[in-house]
């Protein structure tokens, strides 16, 4: 078994127009920025991007590659001018957005990974987030039905990876990478370093190889939330 | 000043989440001799204040506002799913959130501006519904001088009936069965001034006092 692919282009070779893509990361940490750049360079378009916020969807929106963004932040938390750009695209009918609470998105992704088609939660009752959804009372509390979310590909970031697809993550870079691994049809991981099988302590495996189909080495690109890249 | 007053709500032994913006400032004023454990929704328990020098920053050690921070002894890191298990499961003692509007019934609006399709809900909804106590920290009025404490929110709601306390640059207000109770006024501010900048009627507490920091 060897899940290591030679380069980024090879890692994303079969991502086609119209694909639904989960992208890991939260602010400056754990984003699959190399895989995203490669996908932008390839020209793939009409994508549905499922992610935490602007650092993940920005490249797709700026380059008109996204058809839909499903995210906890469909606005930009620090730069109102970018919020205006994405709002204008929505009003012009060029982009669809679905704002989903971070934790609900997380559970919808995990549900897919775990083979659970839907779940009930009190989160969102009485707000736009619960609108149009089936409801049910549990112990007197109204809950809404949330569906698992499907995707064709998950692009994630690990620190170390081996040819079996086992990955480690640094600190808060776990964020959405752990839940997205295995939630899509194909999970592609970029890592800082590829190590020999056996080098990763079994007690330190954060993402188990069973969830990962491809691993590619790519040095970390750090983008801070305001958009600037670290030196 | 609001951040200073919020800091007084944090007590030894509490697990606390400080939301985006103004509440994050509170992390600067936490007494070091107490075990007040800060939770960051992106996956940290027991983190410290913000690191200003970017050359000292580690992008994998950031708070929920995306700012570089560091871990204190006894810290734990985890993924988003675990983080929201903590939030939704009712394991946090206190969440401090920013707001655009709070209604007299404790409805919170803090994620989307009027007329917009896009917005930033983040983890605010889970914090508002999941934490044992919710404190809103905000400026008393908006940039046009209009009250943010209103009879009914005109902006899209984050969550219904979730706010327990409002701390602003003018006042400390508790929300209870009876309504909005004015407990403290900022130095130099009269209860009448607070009322004039608040849409619903305030009940003046019998033990009304001046805010201390």
- The gyration radius over C-alpha positions of chain A equals 18 Å
- CATH C-level label of the domain at 17-99 and 151-217 in chain A: Alpha Beta
Helix-strand string of chain A? HEHEHEHEHEEEEHEE
The SS-based structural class of chain A is: alpha/beta
Rough outline of chain A: globular
**Multimeric state:** heterodimer
| Distinct helical segment count of chain B | 5
Radius of gyration of chain B: 17 Å
What is the class of chain B in the CATH system? Answer: Alpha Beta
CATH architecture of chain B, by name, is 3-Layer(aba) Sandwich
Average pLDDT across residues of chain A? Answer: 97
Remind me, CATH topology of chain B? Glutaconate Coenzyme A-transferase
- SS-based structural class of chain B? alpha/beta
How does this model look, in words?
- The complex is a heterodimer of chains A (231) and B (213).
- With 231 residues, chain A is α/β, with parallel strands linked by helices.
- Chain A has a domain of 150 residues: 3-Layer(aba) Sandwich (Glutaconate Coenzyme A-transferase).
- Chain A is built from six helices and ten strands; from the N terminus they run αβαβαβαβαββββαββ.
- In chain A, 53% of the residues are buried.
- Chain B has one domain: Glutaconate Coenzyme A-transferase (3-Layer(aba) Sandwich).
- The mean pLDDT of chain B is 95.
- Chain B is of the alpha/beta class and 213 residues long.
- The relative contact order of chain B is 0.15.
- In chain B, a hairpin with a 4-residue loop joins strand 6 and strand 7.
- The longest helix of chain B has 9 residues.
- Chain B has five helices and 13 strands.
- Helices cover 15% and strands 28% of the residues of chain B.
- The radius of gyration of chain B is 17 Å and the shape is globular.
- In chain B, the strands form two sheets. Chain B has a ten-stranded mixed sheet with strand order 4-3-2-1-5-8-10-11-12-13. A three-stranded mixed sheet of chain B has the order 7-6-9, with no helix packed on it.
- The termini of chain B are close together.
- At the A-B interface, helix 4, helix 5 and helix 6 of A face helix 3 and helix 4 of B.
């Amino acid at each position: 078994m060897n899940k290591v692919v030679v380069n980024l282009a090879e890692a994303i070779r079969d991502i086609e127009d119209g694909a639904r893509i989960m992208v890991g990361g939260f602010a400056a940490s754990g984003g699959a920025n190399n895989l995203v750049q490669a996908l932008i360079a390839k020209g793939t378009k009409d994508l549905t991007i499922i992610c935490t916020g602007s650092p993940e969807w920005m490249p797709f929106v700026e380059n008109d590659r996204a058809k839909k963004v499903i995210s906890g932040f469909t606005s930009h938390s620090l730069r109102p001018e970018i919020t205006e750009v994405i709002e204008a695209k929505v009003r012009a009918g060029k982009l669809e957005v679905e704002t989903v609470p971070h934790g609900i998105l997380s559970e919808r992704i995990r549900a897919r990974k775990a083979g659970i088609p839907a779940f009930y939660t009190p989160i969102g009752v009485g707000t736009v987030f619960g609108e149009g959804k089936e409801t049910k009372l549990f112990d007197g509390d109204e809950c809404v039905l949330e569906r698992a979310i499907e995707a064709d590909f998950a692009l994630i970031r690990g620190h170390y990876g081996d040819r079996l697809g086992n990955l480690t993550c640094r600190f808060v870079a776990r964020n959405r990478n752990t839940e997205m691994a295995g939630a899509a049809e194909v999970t592609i991981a970029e890592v800082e370093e590829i190590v020999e099988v056996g080098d990763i302590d079994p007690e330190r495996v954060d993402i188990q190889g069973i969830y990962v189909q491809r691993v590619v080495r790519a040095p970390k690109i750090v983008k801070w939330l305001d958009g600037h890249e670290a030196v | 000043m609001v951040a200073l007053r919020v800091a007084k709500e944090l007590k030894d032994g509490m697990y606390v989440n400080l939301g985006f913006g103004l509440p994050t400032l509170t992390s600067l004023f936490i007494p070091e001799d107490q075990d007040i454990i800060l939770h960051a929704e992106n996956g940290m328990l027991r983190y410290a204040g913000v690191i200003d020098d970017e050359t000292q920053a580690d992008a994998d050690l950031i708070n929920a506002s995306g700012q570089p921070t560091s871990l204190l002894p006894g810290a734990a890191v985890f993924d988003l799913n675990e983080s929201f298990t903590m939030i939704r499961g009712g394991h946090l003692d206190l969440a401090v959130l920013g707001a655009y509007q709070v209604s007299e019934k404790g409805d919170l609006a803090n994620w989307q501006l009027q007329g917009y399709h896009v917005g930033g809900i983040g983890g605010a909804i889970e914090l508002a519904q999941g934490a044992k106590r919710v404190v809103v920290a905000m400026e008393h009025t908006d940039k046009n001088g209009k009250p943010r404490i209103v009879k009914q929110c005109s902006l899209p709601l984050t969550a219904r009936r979730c706010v327990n306390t409002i701390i602003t640059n003018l006042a400390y207000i508790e929300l209870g069965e009876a309504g909005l109770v004015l407990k403290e006024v900022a130095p130099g501010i009269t209860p009448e001034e607070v009322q004039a900048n608040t849409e619903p009627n305030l009940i003046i507490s019998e033990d009304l006092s001046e805010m201390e920091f």
